[in-house]
Amino acid sequence: MFLTRLIYASTKTEHFNPTSLEEIIEKAASNNEKNDITGMLCFNRNYFLQSIEGSRTNVNKTYNKILNDKRHTQIILLDYSEINTREFSSWSMGYVPTSKLSAQINLKFSGTSEFSPYKISGASAYMMMLELKKSLPSV
């Protein structure tokens, strides 16, 4: 079994409502735990940036479900890599909201302090998520 990490960006749609984020996090945490998937989700009211880790088969199945979720669109694969170890192993689905802290980290890994996952490379997205992880509790 190969461990794989997938990172993608997307934009919310009109199907995304005020309770959608909570529903996404709860369902992802439950499903991910059953499928040995770990990861992190960043969201700023418009854009998503997510990393998912696990077996190649389970990551691909999870990503296929993500692609068919009508609550977001313009899904762009930023990175897909075989990995030796998980970086988010204690997170069935960590969530990072936009904050003053994330603005500083955005600036460090992109050309602006504004969260815009379409304007960063897969490698920068990964490094940014690792930096954010350092400042948050495990879930």
Automatic annotation (TrEMBL):
<dbReference type="InterPro" id="IPR007024">
    <property type="entry name" value="BLUF_domain"/>
</dbReference>
<protein>
    <submittedName>
        <fullName>BLUF domain-containing protein</fullName>
    </submittedName>
</protein>
<dbReference type="InterPro" id="IPR036046">
    <property type="entry name" value="Acylphosphatase-like_dom_sf"/>
</dbReference>
<feature type="domain" description="BLUF">
    <location>
        <begin position="3"/>
        <end position="94"/>
    </location>
</feature>
<dbReference type="Pfam" id="PF04940">
    <property type="entry name" value="BLUF"/>
</dbReference>
